[in-house]
Model the fold of this input.
Amino acid sequence: MSSAPVIEAVSAAEHIQQLERDYLLQNYARYPLTLHRGKGCYVYDLAGKRYLDMIAGIGVNALGYAHPRITKVIKEQAGLLIHTSNLYYHEYQGRLAERLAQVSGLQRTFFSNSGTEAMEGALKMVRAHGNKLHPEKFETVSLLNSFHGRTFGALSVTGQEKYRRDFEPMLPGVKFVPSNDLVALEQAVSERTAGIVIEWIQGEGGINPMTHEYARKARELADKYDALLIFDEIQCGVGRPGTYFAYQLASPVILPDIMVAAKPMSCGLPLGCIVANERAAAAIGSGMHGSTFGGGPLACRVALEFFDMMPELLPQIRSKGVHFRSRLAELQKRYGFIKEVRGEGLMVGVELDIPGKQMVLDAMAQGMLMNCTHDTVLRFLPPYIVTEKEIDRAVSVLAKIFKKQ
Ligand SMILES: Cc1ncc(COP(=O)(O)O)c(C=O)c1O
Done:
């Protein structure tokens, strides 16, 4: 490319950044990168520079960019019906709910637009369930280091003080316990507990999986005290671990009463869901909950197209995840500052004992996007269509960066 278009692209990017400085709430700390288009697992900035995307919009772009099947149904449906509201029926909401029931083992779905909204609805279910049984049954037990979203309910059960402190007081009756500590969980749950919330693999918290023993204990306690068990599968579910949902990694499967999912469900379109068994669903009656946008025809149709592809994708996600982690384990042998390689399927974390933030910028300079969470955990949530060759390319970018440390 000659220098003139690059200079133009740089000044266009500066203009975009200036507009945002002038007109947006200053809540995001964006990287200095302005994206223009994508194809497959690659995105391109305004100047046409290509980046291998190993974070995929924080686990949203499950089929990468401009996937032909997704583009086709979006085009077709956009010409037919984008939104109806929930005053009327359309062809796709019931069909998607049926598909979710088939793959989750839970019966009833409510559609939202985001993860945090799904969590809000699930917490309302917990409250309504508890209220029916006893006025004092409103406590929720949640895990330290968890992340469940930014709205008030979801924030109240998020086990990280840094997200909550500016907005106190939170919802009352939330108890936080350390994850994988069976005794602490047993001590926290009582007759007053209406819900237990567990993120199967903590994502923002640094790719920390729950042990199956712990999840089983939570199930047992929820049954003992007639509380609802919620699994937050917003980041770790919908194919990402190589099963439809992370709770299906346990054998036998440990079913929650309520499962919430979102991120990759509609391949970039906003769509979230609460999927509940009959016991939990019975807590919400007519008029008790709703959404204007949730479950629109466009988002639901795209999700159905995506779910049609899932049976073929799941085994590939598992094998590519094994390949990725084994390549990372080779790096771990070479570099003492790599403490651990963790994850399931294409949800992968590399914990370092040095800061990872600068490495994200270094990777970007090398044409690769990744993320660092909790200061020292490099997080990878690539599209499900990533190839072993692309994984190898990501590993060689990492090797170059690690070599400089
Ligand atoms: C586990 C988990 N729960 C909830 C949320 C909130 O989802 P959203 O950002 O779509 O509101 C996230 C987002 O990162 C998440 O990772």
The chain has a mean pLDDT of 97. Residues 363 and 400 are 9 Å apart (CA to CA).
